[in-house]
Design brief:
heterodimer, A: 291 residues, mainly beta, three-stranded antiparallel β-sheet, extended, B: 56 residues, mainly alpha, 3 helices, 4% strand
Chain lengths: 291, 56
């Protein structure tokens, strides 16, 4: 557009992907005292007819796959939708049965929005695995059972939420200063006071504050035992007590500017621990929703 | 550790390579202007209220 040498070309966007929306009510499924460790979407792939499989195999002997991508659909205040890619995998026309997708990030986005009465909306897109005239059109022959009652209850899409009881597996807020730390102390936030006046090098330089409560996370976490999990979860590793949110520390410092000395405010980030949590090593960090 | 971390973060934010050496006489009569004090107090309040999520 706006190029002097190339005439503008108008066209329509064309996609031969097939999309279906899935709507899951989340009411009472994630109470505040439960932590989500994984959300799994299970879709039932209907069998392709033998004729289709034979024809596909003849035309594309080595390539009867399609791609299936799961999106989280964010319904915005102004009524428009925005989609976020959540998971994607290849699917073969020669297979049938349940296949799973990890949609933990979608449920986390839903949690971040805080609209607990809104359902979780996912979009399933079945599209070509490769682009180009020779690429297989296997995606046309991949069908999943939908939420439409016509498809029946038995193979309806399922959203599985694997959660942990925070009472049992979570941290316990602030440590009780009256109870000494011991092996049995559950993960908590311990108050530690940093007296800046003890650091000789701050003299005449840091004017305020004289000190601050930094806190740190101490204690141990309830571990998951393999038999507790009724699904294969790769992050059932050591749960440790981590810092999960921090706050900055503002300071007033004296600085030299030329031959004058002036005062300045500096905000040091990640200086104060605000929250400690138990989480498994290696758990993926959920992305933040951008406004 | 905390002292090291604190010092390193402060020097980085002030883009200083070393700790400034100021004499007591330099700061004894220094007055902190109102706008500096106001900004400091507002940041202090905000720091106490809204934690910055660090992710797990």
């Amino acid at each position: 557009r706006h190029s002097q040498t190339i005439a503008e070309i108008m066209g329509r966007f064309f996609s031969d992907a097939s999309n279906q929306l899935l709507v899951f009510s989340m009411k009472d499924r994630l109470p505040p005292n439960r932590e989500l460790v994984q959300a799994v979407l299970r879709l039932f792939q209907k069998p392709s007819s033998k004729g289709v499989i034979r024809k596909q195999h003849k035309m594309f002997p080595f390539h009867s796959y399609a791609s299936v991508t799961i999106y989280w659909v964010q319904v915005r205040e102004d009524g428009t939708n925005r989609t976020y890619v959540i998971d994607s995998r290849r699917v073969s026309t020669q297979e049938t049965g349940w296949i799973t997708f990890d949609v933990s990030q979608a449920v986390n986005y839903w949690q971040q929005e805080g609209k607990v009465n809104q359902p979780l909306v996912l979009e399933v897109s079945i599209h070509r695995e490769n682009i180009g005239p020779m690429s297989s059109n296997a995606h046309k022959f991949i069908h999943f059972s939908s939420q439409n009652p016509v498809d029946g209850e038995l193979h309806a899409p399922q959203l599985q939420l694997h959660t942990l009881d925070m009472e049992e597996y979570g941290a316990h807020g602030n440590c009780d200063p009256d109870i000494p730390l011991s092996r049995g102390t559950r993960c908590c936030r311990r108050e530690t006071y940093i007296n800046l006046q003890e650091f000789k090098w701050t003299e005449n330089w840091i004017l305020d504050p004289p000190g601050f409560k930094a806190y740190d996370c101490v204690g141990s976490c309830q571990q998951l035992k393999k038999e507790h999990l009724n699904f294969r979860w790769p992050f059932a590793t050591q749960r440790k007590c981590h810092v999960t949110s921090t706050a900055p520390l503002p300071l007033i410092v004296a600085v030299k500017e030329g031959d004058k000395i002036v005062t300045k405010v500096v905000n040091l980030y990640n200086m104060k621990v605000m929250q400690c949590s138990c989480s498994s090593e290696g758990m993926p960090v959920m992305k933040k929703l951008k406004p | 550790q905390m002292e090291e971390k604190f010092q390193e973060s402060l020097l980085r934010q002030l883009q200083l390579n070393e700790i400034p050496v100021l004499e007591k006489a330099d700061v004894e009569h220094l007055v902190i202007p109102d706008h500096v004090r106001t900004k400091y107090v507002s940041l202090m309040k905000r720091s106490a209220e809204e934690p910055s999520p660090r992710g797990k």
